[in-house]
Hints:
Blueprint: E1 7-11, H1 17-35, E2 38-42, H2 49-55, E3 66-70, E4 72-74, H3 84-89, E5 103-104, H4 112-126, E6 134-137, E7 164-168, E8 176-180, H5 182-187, E9 190-195, H6 198-208, H7 220-223, E10 228-233
Parallel strand pairs: 1-10, 2-3, 2-6, 3-5, 6-9, 9-10
Antiparallel strand pairs: 4-8, 7-8
Helix pairs in contact: 1-2
Amino acid sequence: MTTLKHERLIVAGKDITDAGTRWLEERIVKAIQERGVAIIGLSGGSTPGPIYEKLGQSNAIDFTKCYAFMVDERHIAEDHKDSNTLLLRNTLLKGGKFLEENLVRPNTSLPIDQTIRDYDTKMRELFKKGNPDIVCLGLGPDGHLASIFPPANIDAANREDAYVLHTTTEKFAVFDRITVNFIVIRKGREQVFFMKGADKVKVWDEMIGQPNHHERWPAQKVIEDGHTTLIASTD
Length: 235
């Protein structure tokens, strides 16, 4: 049976901002020192927002050598309140250090099919610089990863010729989603999951206790690679 080994960093209280920022900063600095560039994948949500904001204020990172891509996005206007692009503008880019031209994101002004093709092309161009150093993730209350929702189509989410997928959901805000696939996420040298509260950790532990259920728990495909860290709060 496949095991789901991972590192766990549990922070007392509610705030994981300092722990999450420090974890990312150390690895970004190391990547730039070792290979001259750092590439990170960023998921949306309220939990990582404060981490991204503090990261964007770092004095240790040479942001001219740091690139980021969006793990998933909603097919809505960039200034919509539910847009992950807006989230990153209000957090990571807010301090003016991270260069907006170094943020690779979907063009949601295009029709959805064109958005997917355009973002796939951008991702492949970015990866000419190298594979991601870090991919930041979350785990939805229903077990979804990025915008790959259970029951997950594992074959479709694991195609080399389709780095970017169009998915849909009726459970959460915004029906049409843009998401990178398993291959992109698993290219990361490390993956980190940010979570807040005992309820989220309970869902995580439920998933860890049910290995080899990829359709139900798509995140298992990532954790199986053995490069995953969970950073979570107790409250």
